[in-house]
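Input sequence (114 aa), recorded before submission:
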Amino acid sequence: MARITVPKLEASTFKGWTFVLVAGVVLAILAIIDRGGLGEITAANGSTSCQLEVVTDELNVRNGPSQGAALVETVPRGARIDGTKVVTDGFRELEEGRWAADQFLSPLPGSDCA
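Predicted structure, token format:
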């Protein structure tokens, strides 16, 4: 069986701004990976009068109003996105011809999504 050896680390290894910088970069990369990568996350910019918040862990956004439509992206809980008033078969139309299950979207206060 292979033996793994860990080099001896000196106390001075963990001192100074270089260590802080390297540790920060590593932790930031781990956070990005944990979040699901650098995929495009759509944010509400107010371009429509209907702004919505995602109320499920991950919302699948599709290119049509059905479960069988191709998946274009996933949006995390709490993300705010712009939508339209159009709801077809339980799917709400979002900007740019994208669709998401309406049951997992909650209109933001003051939005006109009805």
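Checked by second reader. Residues 50-107 form a domain with the SH3 type barrels. fold (CATH 2.30.30.40).
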